[in-house]
Design a protein that fits this description.
single chain; about 450 residues; four-stranded parallel β-sheet; about 45% helix
């Protein structure tokens, strides 16, 4: 079996354990599957992320443990030579949304999100990449033609016949609204902080979605960091790279099993980051799925020590502020905000790596700020999952388990959600507009005494 991801970290998994049940084929990938100990924790519904598809269906087959049973059968040869093309395996893996909840909450940290990527890559190698997956994964590149793309998306959203045609041709749910690009992409302002190179420098990584869809979030992050005395350097592609295209972590390709394309994007990003990695400048980003891909998924792309160095040097916006505040380096004063309680929904990947602690610390920097974290699993959008015609209904069922009822129970509360797909799901689910923490902190800056 040719692996598309690097599973060498599982080389010694299960050794000396008579009950490991490692499948006969699959090498280190089989060992990653076999770390499941069948304790059925993933088939319970306590507080946490795991497992959105099981919670929505109440079917053990759609839990990580249920998927492991089928994966083991496939790797043991029970489904024949082309096991990854078998419909039984497809049915088991279909509703995994890659939330990473099992990697944190499972007793043995089954990484079903990564297993799903490998599975999809194997299917793509056997059957080819579907047109819809090529279209969605290629969005970061297509946005070079943002005027055309923006016009087509807006036309599709307003013309029901075109939405129905899109569902028939590509399988994109006609009843779902597609995110529309902003009028103009993000353009970095000149920093007003004058300091020697390396002294309070920070690299701001503007992902595809902040660049093209919600540039006000990137502007807010730049403003907050600048007001706190950092020299903000906006990460740009190398001079000989593709002009007009945002740097990308490769997440859109990776989540749909297009690993080679994701690896190319990762290398492009690493090339732009090489000077920062050499000098140790912190790299700060805004989108949880992007930044946490750099800390986790990139380590399975076979990119060497550069990927390891990046994983230790990259932070979510709120993680960086919390770290700097703990080190007595972030002393920006905030003012109370004229709002009531704010409900906070965490992106699954934030929860999976424990990043919600940093968000709580940062929110407490705002005087008299009242907030409440929503106890909910995945919002159900999960990248493109909720836009897919066959998954649109189950996507909303996931949202209706906890998230949307909690929002409806507090109709006057503001909503904070740092994930791009989470905000999109909330807008459709309850017709309210969530904000990113960067916008909140920008609004709370005490401008008295500020010179820029």
């Amino acid at each position: 079996m040719k692996h598309h991801l690097d599973w060498s970290s599982y080389e010694t998994a299960g050794q000396g354990d008579a009950y490991a049940g490692i499948p006969a084929t699959g090498g280190d990938f089989a060992k990653a599957v076999a770390v499941c100990i069948s304790d059925k924790l993933c088939q319970r519904t306590p507080k946490g992320v795991m497992c959105p598809s099981f919670r929505a269906t109440d079917d053990a087959a759609h839990s990580p443990g249920g998927r492991v049973v089928v994966l083991k059968a496939a790797l043991n040869g029970e489904f024949g030579d082309d096991a990854f093309a078998d419909p039984r395996l497809a049915a088991a893996m279909e509703l995994c949304v890659g939330c990473k909840g099992c990697k944190r909450e499972c007793a043995n940290q089954v990484d079903m999100a990564a297993i799903k990527i490998e599975y999809q890559a194997q299917v793509n190698a056997l059957k080819g990449v579907p047109h819809r997956d090529r279209l969605i994964a290629g969005l970061p590149g297509l946005l070079r033609y943002r005027r055309v793309m923006g016009g087509l998306i807006r036309w599709r959203n307003r013309a029901s016949w075109l939405a129905r045609a899109g569902e028939f041709i590509f399988g994109i749910a006609a009843k779902r609204i597609l995110p529309e690009p902003a009028v103009a992409p993000y353009a970095a302002p000149r920093s007003c902080v004058e300091s020697a190179a390396g002294d309070r420098d920070v690299i701001l990584f503007i992902d595809t979605f902040a660049m093209h869809f919600e540039p006000e979030i990137a502007r807010a992050a730049h403003q907050v960091l600048t007001a706190a005395g950092y020299r903000v350097i906006t990460l740009r592609a190398a001079a000989d790279d593709e002009p007009g295209r945002a740097l990308c972590c490769g997440r859109t390709w990776l989540s749909l099993g297009q690993v080679d394309a994701a690896r190319r994007e990762a290398r492009r990003l690493h090339a732009a980051l090489r000077p920062a990695l050499a000098s140790g400048i912190p790299i700060v980003g805004l989108e949880p799925s992007c930044i946490l891909s750099l800390r986790d998924d990139h380590l399975k792309l076979g990119l060497g020590e550069e990927a390891v160095a990046l994983s230790k040097q990259v932070y979510l916006f709120e993680e960086f502020i919390a770290r700097e505040h703990d080190r007595k380096r972030f002393d920006l004063e905030f003012k109370p905000l004229p709002r009531g309680k704010t409900l906070v929904h965490g992106h699954c990947h934030q929860k999976a790596v424990g990043a919600m602690k940093s968000l709580r610390k940062v929110l407490r920097l705002i005087p008299e700020f009242e907030f409440e974290f929503i106890e909910a699993s995945c919002c159900g959008m999960a990248g493109s999952f909720g836009l897919e015609a066959e998954h649109a209904d189950i996507s909303m069922r996931m949202a209706e388990l906890d998230l949307l009822p909690a929002l409806r129970a507090a109709p006057d509360a503001a909503i904070l959600a740092n994930g791009f797909s989470c905000r999109h799901q909330i807008r459709e689910g309850v017709a309210r507009d969530p904000i990113h923490v960067a916008l909140l902190l920008r609004d709370a800056i005490d401008t008295r005494g500020q010179t820029c």
